[in-house]
Amino acid sequence: MARSHDALASVAAARLRELHVPGKPLVLPNVWDADSARSAVAAGFPVVATSSVAVAESLGYSDGENAPVDDMFDAASRIMRAVDVPVTVDVEAGYGLAAAELVDRLLGMGAAGCNIEDTDHEHGCLRNPGEHAELLAAIRQHAGANLVINARVDSFLYASDESTALPDAVERARCYVKAGVDCVYPIHAVSRESITAIVTAISPTAVNTTYLPGAQDVAGMTGLGVTRISLGAGLWRAGQRRLRDTLEAMSKGTMPY
Predict the structure, then answer these.
(1) What residues have CB less than 8 Å from 75, skipping those under 6 apart?
(2) CA distances, 68 to each of 52, 139, 152, 192 (Å)
(3) What digits encode the pLDDT tens for the residues 106-146?
(4) What is the DSSP letter of 21?
(5) Whole-structure pTM value
């Protein structure tokens, strides 16, 4: 007998959840279309994550919930149809959808997890942490264990100095853990002090960081207790730089092959 949709979703989410291992973090090459997703899987990555920046830009829009939500979900669906590993979807701040609709759309397309941020894109500021925690708790209630929730903390994006943003980031991280998330993502936390403080504050909950050239490398973040490392839009940007360099060379008469 075929397993139910919920059972299949639970298996994918469980596989994603169990890959968050202290000392052996899950490294995620964030993708933007079916082809880049297939390339990630062919390279041996056990999970695929989407990047809202890369997906939106590839569709002709800027990041920050400027792309039509249906277009963003359609892109994620195409990625999921192209690979046979768990896929976690960057849903930005949730697109203003009610928790039940957001969960139904994610599970309906086969997502194993989601990344949701606490930026209020309409007003260009951080959401109230209590209100955002209510949304996260509602997502957990509707999804049960069938979705790995990665709560992105955007405190460091709005501060000129990382140390001044740290207390707010820690408060938000603790608040979101209480709401039932699986992982907390203090995006652009780069110093040992900030990463250690957040890991310590919410242990044993998983912590996701971003790989940024010149900041902590994978070994360094592993030593700090991070269990998930994302490239964000880094992979897409690297590809775009290569494309621009190739096109510039071609415009000057140098053919790439």
Answers:
(1) 32, 33, 50, 55, 58, 59
(2) 12, 21, 21, 37
(3) 999 999 999 999 999 999 999 999 999 999 999 999 999 99
(4) B
(5) 0.95
